[in-house]
Design a protein that fits this description.
The complex is a heterodimer of chains A (712) and B (112). Chain A is mainly α and 712 residues long. Chain A contains 29 helices and two strands. In chain A, a hairpin with a 4-residue loop joins strand 1 and strand 2. By secondary structure, chain B is mainly alpha-helical. Chain B has four helices and no strands. Chain B starts with a helix and ends in a 13-residue tail after the last helix. The chains are: A mainly alpha (712), B mainly alpha (112).
Amino acid sequence: MDPLLVLLSPLIPILPFLALPLILLFRKRTNGGAVFSIGANFISWLIATALLIDGIFGGFDEVIEGVERVVYTFMENPKIEFGVLIDPLSVIMAFIVSTLALLIQIYSIGYMKDEPGKHSGRYFAEITIFVGAMLGLALSLNFLFLFVFWELMGLCSYLLIGFFMDKETEKPGTGPASAAKKAFLITKVGDVLLFGGFVLLMLEFISAGVPDPLNFVSGKEAVAGGVFAGKENLQTLIALLIFGGAVGKSAQFPLHVWLPDAMEGPTTVSALIHSATMVKAGVFLLARCFWIFEGTNALLFVSVIGGFTAVFAATMALVATDIKKILAYSTISQLAYMILAIGVGGVASGLFHLLSHSIFKCLLFLGAGSIIHSYHTQEITEIRGLHKKMPITAITFVIGALGLSGIFPFNGFFSKDAIFASALARYNYILDPLYLLLFVIAVVTAFMTGFYIFRAVFMIFSNEPVEGHLEGEHHPHESPGVMTYPLMILGSLVVLMGLGSLVGMIVNIGFNPASETNLHHWLEGLVIVSHDALDPNIVLMLVSLIVAGSGILLAYLIYSGISESQKSGFVGKIKLSTRSFKTTMVTSFVGTKIDYVLVNRYGIDALYRNIGLGLNYIVGEILYRVDKRVLDDLIVHNVAKASLMFAGANDSFDRKIIDEFIIDKTGRGFLRLGELFGRLQSGITQNYAMGMFFGLVLFIVIWLFGYFYGGF
Amino acid sequence: MTDFVANIPLIYVLLLSLVLFVIGAFGLMTKKNGVRMLMCVEIILTAANINFVAFSTYGPLNGAVATSLGQVFTLFSIVIAAAEASIGLAILLVLYKHYKTISIDTISELRG
């Protein structure tokens, strides 16, 4: 490991945070601060890339062990420190996050050009902390900073999903502001569970005397050393609580509802949330804490949730007509694949799929952003003739779609195949039919994936006129270079990663089956997996290819346009008969019911809303009762009565005692006294003079009396 | 001065003062003319002034040293008496203008 790189590595998460004050200070002069955000990200990307190259070709053994670089120690016992952990997982995450974030930020310059609020610097300021938080999470060496960055990402997602907070919506509760609140609150449910898991784990480690209870490396050693021996139930509970956090962040059933609504944010933000940050954090957390899950029954739960969510989200994508919603459901489904893979013990295949999904989903979202930017609509039923109007966007979008459906030789094919292999290997290992079921579900989901993404592709490529729209109403044009170049780079990455995997696989089969330089072996060094499922299996690959291909074929038959030359031919006939069959199915009684259920997202959003409203109603009713019975009847009423009585007593006291007895009597007394003294005023001056002299004489007499007898 | 003190005993001076006081008091009690009553008040004041001067000259009864403090007070008293007389006369003048008489018996409107 190069010492300089280890020294520089903490800068990867810190630099985006340093860019934040610069953006806010110079936002007016730099047109929203893009240059700082992109500059900081670029340097982070350089360091992360150097780390990856050095980790694979240089300090291979060191990286597998994990290199800790502590920046600052806050506390000694228990140890709390900030720093980075350099191991295969964090290096790969940091690389992929900074690469994709860089491309998205460059793309944002073009995409956000005409959006309101761009010059405030808000967009780039929020994006840069979002990326910084994800990089910090990927590189953090203890639970504390992982959680800090985890929460910071929750905040950033709230801010960015609600970026167009002033946007008017037809229905209340559907706008960006509501979507932001929904995302924040629902992921918070997971965060609370995660926090509980961390606290339990830390308490257990402290009581067991682990010197560095928050650190990943020492925690892993402690668990391997048998801290939980005899306390397997506690370990399972902690694992489930941590999984709860991942369920919230990675939008798995039953906390998946926030992700489709999060499409209210700018498309670049959706791309960031879906490819590099946020939802990937949940999967990353599972990989990072896999040593807690290992050997517990929690893994079974993880794989079941993953398998269920995969097919569940894919069905909703089948009927969605908003291009961003289709991609959102697809993300939920693909994340469920990764979680399924981790649940069956194939952490490396899960992470492999995470990497390829990050790239092709980023490409798909940026492509969708380019389409929306020029067509000004998100409905796939209103976008027509994409490949003629926007050729670069169209080609890259198809590459992304091929990656997503898992077609040879694009990257999704290899990573999805690795997941199938992991599930099957798990079944072969313990022969539990549940795992066979999960494998079948994964394969069925692959079919649906191919179908729903190519449904969108064929619809936006077809030339059939849109109902209610005049021909030539819009004049869509190709996006500027700042947007198309990131698309091309991502498209070539999808192809290159696929080709790289192919080469690696051929090498693996032909010459060196246990080659340590393969990605999955590198990652396996990090997590102890009970079995190695990743040796290539040709039959499985063919199955996966046929399934995905048939999904695409079905989409082609139903949704692609019928050209003049096809109309009479064999293809045209098949297309027409498929379509009439589809129409019969969809319009049949069962079909309409299923359609209704899917369009309404299985009613889960409505269920949560009704639970919320019901809780609201119950709490309101209780408060109303308390208000009425206790506050009104008991307190207010009685206090009022007592006050009334007291006031009555006071009133009679005032009247009887004060007024009549004291005031009136006193007044009358003085009146009488006045009359008495008035009589003295005779008006005869001589009388007064007489009084004066008699008084004088009286005083003299008293004085003399005192003088002679009193002694004064 | 010393001769005067030696020849006339204090009691005579005090008797003079007493006589003047009685004359003043009698006049004040019997006369109904406002001006006369004012004059009687002046006589009573004069009796008091004589007392002041007498005690100042002869010294107090227990034989302490005489001072001129009483004479100074007399001067004050005379000045105040002059002021008092002028105010009294002014009041009488106003009374006369209002009631066309200075007989104070007729002026008894505040009788209780």
